[in-house]
Design goal:
Length: about 90
């Protein structure tokens, strides 16, 4: 193979890899924002204003001081209806 053919193939793969990384970063950001917004809306709708939501990739974290154990379990259940509980 000539040098120009190898260079073209290398540049093509490098550009494809860069596009894949950039698109995955945007996808993760979108998933985090949407998950956080929807879980927060459901918690507020259920009257669980004490619970705060944080996301990291596909993981959703609830934090805050629950008035009692039943409220804590209710918050987990409400969040589980929006996102998969394995997350």
């Amino acid at each position: 193979m000539r040098f120009s053919t190898v260079a073209i193939m290398t540049v093509t793969f490098a550009v494809a890899a860069a596009l894949a990384v950039v698109s995955s970063v945007f996808a993760v950001d979108a998933i985090e924002r949407v998950s956080k917004r929807i879980v927060t809306m459901e918690l507020v709708r259920s009257g669980l204003d004490w619970a705060e939501v944080d996301t990291d990739g596909l993981q959703v974290f609830l934090y805050g001081t629950a008035p009692d154990e039943a409220e804590r379990f209710t918050a987990l259940s409400v969040a589980g209806t929006v996102v998969d509980t394995a997350r």
